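pinned: reference chain
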Amino acid sequence: MEIILVGISHKTAPVAVRERFAFSSEELPDALPRFGGAVAVLSTCNRTEVYLAVPHTVTAKSVIALLRELKGDVDAPDDAFYHSTGDEATRHLYRVAAGIESMVLGESEILGQVRAAFSAATAAGTHNAVLSRLFHGAIRSGRRARSQTHIGRHAVSISSTAVALARRTLGDLSNRSVLVVSAGEAGKLAARSLAQSGASKLLVTNRTASRARELAADLDGKAVPFKELEQAMADSDIVISSSAAPDFLISKNDVVGAMRGRNGRELLLIDIAVPRDVDPAVRELPGVHLYDIDDLQALIEQNMNARRREVANVERIVDEELVRFGEWLRARGVVPTVTALLASAEETRRTEVARTFKRLKDLTPQQQERVEAMTNALVKKLLHDPITRLRGADGERYVGAVRELFSLDDELPAEEKAQTDIPPGETGLEA
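pinned: its structure tokens
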């Protein structure tokens, strides 16, 4: 049994190529069984990766050929794909789940996507004990990375940075008001993030009234006429602007007028537009805080550097989980031999005890129980050292010798093979 990874990602192919190998959740139920074994497919906007726990006869070339077939013989260069096996494939999945293989270092969405990939395999019936344990460990790696390091605790997007700036400047965002001026996509995302972080009122304005109403409906806010911009700023605590206007939309005089109606309350302006929407001269006004796109990018880079410093800590977690998985995999490999050894010894013990009881017909039931107990204890003591060696870190190297010395059958009953599965309680993924 071998773990195989075949994938394509933002590191090896442009979006125009990798998007053609993406699988929707609706496609997976039909696609997964086509691989003919234990398989899970992790498909996101930045990667499509196939993880298999299958016999050694499966090759990366055959997996790539099937991917091409499933997606309509998509033309993609061979070097757009990468593949690995064993520990290397396991490490990659654990790093992916921990967020250190993502385009945005430390992003959190990938952990849910890894969980969804295994859930799809479970629903399709394309999983086995090894694949289950593999993904179980990956999710544990991702959770530990986020709870035991700071890999995901620094804002690295425009929207999350806007929220961080608002909290740093104004404190608690509960009951704060937000004014959105001519918002592009980045501005809308920032406004939504602020609303989700506690802002209670959302106003929207635009030089085109119909566009203001459209934006307000999209953001679940209230449209206000652009001619009332000064009053709208007076009524708001945070102003986000990201228009495509060639000149300033918000002048210093506009902000001066707004501050007269704020009774000393601070005003935060976040200007995401290029060219800028807010006259930089407003920085001179007391109680006014202005951040433009360069300020946000500088903070994002600062936070990204903080995340990069956490990678070594995440790698240590991945290493620990990789060792844990490797130990389980090795132990799983010796379980059939341990099972066969115990079964052989028990069969011999019972045969000899039965023969003894036939010769000693005068034994009382209590005496027979003592003989049973004594022979059980004797077998356990005799097998203790061989079984301990088999279950040790290098136990696999003793398997052949033990099977030969004790003349153990290669064929095991189905119920014994079942014991190689994951222990109870560890067959699924935690919610």
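why pinned: Residues 180 and 191 are 7 Å apart (CA to CA). Residues 333-420 form one domain.
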